[in-house]
Amino acid sequence: MSRADDFERQGFLVLPDFVPAAACDALKARAEQLVEGFEPETVSIFTTHEQTRTSDAYFLSSGDQIRFFFEENAFAPDGSLRQAKALSINKLGHAMHDLDPVFERFSRTPELAALATELGVRKPLLLQSMYIFKQPHIGGEVNSHQDSTFLYTEPYTCLGFWFALEDATLENGCLWALPGGHTLGLKKRFVRAPGGGTAFQVLDSTPVPEEGFVPLEVKKGTLVVLHGLLPHKSGANTSPKSRHAYSLHLIDGTATYPEDNWLQRAPSMPARGF
């Protein structure tokens, strides 16, 4: 059975040793360098419980920027950081692949372009990138969600490339996926609300089953490919080890990308391919 057949059947692929260790290390070093140079004027907390996320302007204008989002548990009651800044950031987003040379080299490779074509993307556009730290002890869980909720196209074309930059285990919050769950249809959309801020638009109120998720414990250098409709999640990091990962989302340029999607880019910086 081909990789495309496997992907169509289960909604995800696990491809070990897709990225050399040296490339993982270079991306990790660059992310840490960006955090080191970050002086937080605006504090934006990334709430991993999507239904309670507050959408501030800093977040909503991050589609074509490099922005820094803190862990929910990073702050003491008085507003000070509980630990060093470098251990308090949840993620970077959402255009490192366009704005930073190290991230661009990692994101735009012939191997990834070939894989996107193999999986049926006719005109791949690299829309969003996220560097996820999953910090020791405070790395929050991410509830079950579908990427097409956030990166909606008509028809559905969102494709996620998730790279393990460090070993991902049960203890440090590996991914969990629901095999075949991409056939359940899209449950909701995350849109810009007419009066400002954001809202979830329910498309199908039938709940995603809580049973049946499988853990994806993977080694550094593994690429996990996620169908945009596949329910997936990750646990909290209860260990002393971080779980750095890089996530890149593509859409097909032949599809329609609605104006009420939360992630918008300036006309001067449209999404580009490989």
TrEMBL record:
Domain of life of the native organism: Bacteria
Keyword Iron set for record: yes
GO molecular function, one term: dioxygenase activity
Record key words, sorted: Dioxygenase, Iron, Metal-binding, Oxidoreductase
Keyword Metal-binding: yes
Pfam families from the UniProt entry: PhyH (PF05721)
PANTHER family, per the entry: PHYTANOYL-COA DIOXYGENASE DOMAIN CONTAINING 1, PHYTANOYL-COA DIOXYGENASE DOMAIN-CONTAINING PROTEIN 1
Protein known as: Phytanoyl-CoA dioxygenase family protein
Organism (species): Hyalangium rubrum
